[in-house]
Write a structure and sequence with these properties.
Blueprint: H1 10-24, H2 27-47, H3 53-76, H4 80-94, H5 103-117, H6 125-136, H7 142-154
Helix pairs in contact: 1-2, 2-4, 3-4, 5-6, 5-7, 6-7
């Protein structure tokens, strides 16, 4: 089929990666991919929807946040063995995220969103974050983004 785009949804790519991991007997990767697929299926069942890429990215972001929090707790408890497992899962999950934005690109996007929304101060943070969340999903850390927006609106 020449001339056709070879576009695969993120959901399809993750399913294919599960099959590849099964064939390769890559148990660590397989476990992480299965966790992700399970979380995706749960959301589809709970909300009775077909997930689009933005939904999948949201699930991945949530799973990454959980793992980062777990790593902090494990390292505090001197359980590097468990922290290493979480770090390996982060590596697998991060591969599904789009190219991460540089700090300069994020700052530029924040300034553009502030201008576009007409935000005048910290009370308008919700408007700015609403614009940015959909545009930057999966491309930057939302916690850092929130802090940057807050700083720009106060300054």
């Amino acid at each position: 089929m020449p001339g056709r785009f070879n576009f695969m949804s993120l959901k399809s790519k993750i399913t294919e990666d599960m099959k590849t991991a099964m064939r390769a007997k890559d148990t660590a990767r397989l476990g992480t991919v299965r966790l992700l697929l399970s979380a995706m299926k749960q959301k589809e069942v709970d909300e009775r929807v077909e997930l689009i890429d933005a939904d999948v990215l949201s699930i991945i972001e949530k799973m990454l946040k959980q793992r980062r929090e777990s790593i902090a707790q494990y390292e505090k408890a001197a359980r590097t063995d468990l922290a290493d497992v979480e770090k390996a899962e982060i590596a697998v999950l991060s591969a599904y995220l789009p190219q991460q934005m540089t700090d300069a690109e994020v700052t530029e996007a924040v300034l553009a969103a502030i201008k576009e929304s007409g935000a005048a101060g910290p009370k308008d943070m919700g408007k700015v974050m609403g614009l940015l969340k959909s545009r930057l999903a999966g491309r930057t850390d939302m916690g850092k983004l929130s802090g940057l927006v807050k700083a720009k609106l106060q300054g």
